[in-house]
Structures are given as structure tokens and as C-alpha cells.
Amino acid sequence: MSQKTKIAITGASGRMGQMLIKSVLETDSAELSGVIERAGHDWVGQDVGTAMGGKALGVLVSEDTAQVIAAADVVIDFTAPCATLGFAKAAADSGTAHVIGTTGLSDRDIADLNALAERTAIVRAGNMSLGVNLLVQLTKKVAAALGEDFDIEVVEAHHHHKVDAPSGTALMLGEAAAEGRGVNLADVSDRGRDGITGARKRGDIGFAVVRGGDIVGEHDVMFAAPGERVVLRHIATDRKVFSRGAITAALWAAKQKPGAYDMMDVLGL
Ligand SMILES: NC(=O)C1=CN([C@@H]2O[C@H](COP(=O)(O)OP(=O)(O)OC[C@H]3O[C@@H](n4cnc5c(N)ncnc54)[C@H](O)[C@@H]3O)[C@@H](O)[C@H]2O)C=CC1
Ligand SMILES: O=C(O)C1=N[C@H](C(=O)O)C[C@H](O)C1
């Protein structure tokens, strides 16, 4: 019988942390080897199953990042940028593969993660769902096919707890559109319209952000020309789509050499 992949989860009490724990438990080829929460959190020291309101799982919530990560084949991390960098250092030190869903990372954070990926496999994506990664590919193709007569706007909507904007997914879609057009997103990105902005600049890629209620995650890429519009849309209604993608990435990452990977590598898209 082949051995199960040992998976550790960070941010155990979070919206995604809890969803990821459930997804690991539903995966026959994986076992939950440990869970981490930030130091001083109420859940630390409790059985994670009972902390989540269910039956005991025999896994205690730990604040000992290095120990939990070293004991795992792969750590899945959907938390916050400052925490993710610390987890990545621990994962590189122990050679544990690292799947990162955290968004809001700065260019500097990403450069630091790429350096750490020389020591272990890191899979990072602003969205781990199959549908969004397909949408990224479609966006690149449509942007390459349509010229600058089509203004590109990325519109995203999320729940009122979300702390970063535009979403990681919106930025992935913007990057894909820019790549399809053969331009750098940084040169054409328009992220903050307010007041007398002047007319839209031809070739810009605009971003618009909605925050409200319990919206799981919705993304439109609009190509708007005089007389017609093409709209590519993804709507997530259940966080399971992200956690299932992350488990697929984790099982894949555990077998990879050190390197920086994304969901396109995992899914072969
Ligand atoms: N890539 C993807 O497919 C997806 C990414 N996300 C991203 O995942 C992240 C988390 O989202 P949610 O679960 O909704 O947030 P949340 O606020 O519900 O949970 C965040 C978790 O991180 C922990 N945490 C925060 N700061 C920490 C620190 N300094 N050290 C240790 N732990 C810390 C918190 O205690 C909490 O358990 C966000 O960046 C979000 O954008 C969310 C869904 C899908
Ligand atoms: O914070 C969220 O909830 C989500 N974050 C990711 C993002 O920033 O794109 C992915 C998903 O849309 C949900």
C-alpha cells in the first residue's frame, strides 16, 4: 500500500483553513499531520476537530510552526503575507513542499518566495480553482485575438471580510490579459478611479472592486468595444473549489524538485 501524503494546514481557524482541513480529511491519499494557528490564539492546544465544532481528530492545534512543518511532506497555507513568508522559511529549512494561496503579497514578498523556492517546491496561485485557471488561459487568448479597440476591465466582488484589493485572482487575470496583448501589466494598469479622472486611456487594463456580504468570489473580464462586448465570467459559490485545488496542488508538490510553480504546472494547462 502506498504511503499517505502528510499535509499540514496553517491558519486552522480561518475560513480557508477550516475548509482545507475538511478537504484533507476527505482525501484518501492524504493524512492531516498537523495544524498551526498564530501564537496566543484561543484554538492553540485544543483538538482541531472539537475546535471546529465536530468530533476529536487527535490533532492538536499548534503554534510551533517549525515543528509542524518539519513533520509534514507539504504545508498548505492560506493566511496573510507576513505569516506566509515565515512559513516559507520554515518549509525551505526542512525541505517541506509549500502550497501558497495567500493573496496581497508584495513584489518583494514574491521575490523572497522565489529565492526560497531554490530549496523546496513552492506552488503559489491567487486562485486554486480549476475554473479560474481555465479562465486565465481564455483571457490570454481573447486578449491576443482582440486589438486595442476592446477596452479590458477586470471586475471582482468578494465578501466584506476581505482585506486586499484587487483580489489575487483579478491580478492573475490582468496579468493574463497583458501577456495576451504583449504588454507589461505595470505599464497599463488603472487601479484607482475617483473624481475627474479624464477619459479612459487606450490600452489600459482597468480594475474595479466590490466588497459586500458573503460573496465567495466573482470575476469578470470585460472586453468592451464600440457596439459590442465580450465578457468572460467565473463565479465561485463554495470555497471547496479552492481547497480541492489546493489538495491537488499539495499531492503534486510533494513529488516535485525545488522550484517555483503555479496551478498551470499542477493542472497541465
Ligand atoms: N488562492 C486561493 O484560491 C484563495 C486564496 N484566499 C486567500 O487566503 C487568505 C486567507 O483567507 P481567509 O481564510 O478568508 O482569511 P481568514 O481571515 O478567515 O483566515 C486567516 C487565517 O490566517 C491566520 N493568520 C493571520 N495572520 C497570521 C499570522 N501573522 N501568523 C499566523 N497565522 C496568521 C489567522 O489566524 C486565520 O486563521 C487570503 O489572503 C485570501 O485572499 C482565499 C480563498 C481562495
Ligand atoms: O479572500 C478570498 O475570499 C479570496 N481570495 C482569492 C483572491 O484574492 O482572488 C481567491 C478567491 O477569489 C477568494
Round the Cα radius of gyration to an integer and report it.
20 Å
Q: What is the number of E strands?
A: 12
> Mean pLDDT, as a whole number?
98
Amino-to-carboxy terminus distance: 30 Å
What does the model show?
With 269 residues, the chain is an alpha/beta fold. The protein has two domains: 5-124 and 239-267, 3-Layer(aba) Sandwich (Rossmann fold), CATH 3.40.50.720; 130-236, 2-Layer Sandwich (Dihydrodipicolinate Reductase, domain 2), CATH 3.30.360. It has ten helices and twelve strands. It has helices at residues 15-25, 48-51, 65-70, 81-94, 107-116, 130-145, 168-181, 185-188, 240-253, 263-267; strands spanning 5-9, 30-36, 61-62, 74-77, 97-100, 121-124, 151-158, 189-190, 205-211, 217-225, 228-236, 259-261. The model has no long low-confidence stretch (mean pLDDT 98). The ligand O=C(O)C1=N[C@H](C(=O)O)C[C@H](O)C1 binds next to helix 7. Ligand LZUJQKHR is lined by residues 103, 126-127, 158, 162, 167-169, 217. Catalyzes the conversion of 4-hydroxy-tetrahydrodipicolinate (HTPA) to tetrahydrodipicolinate.
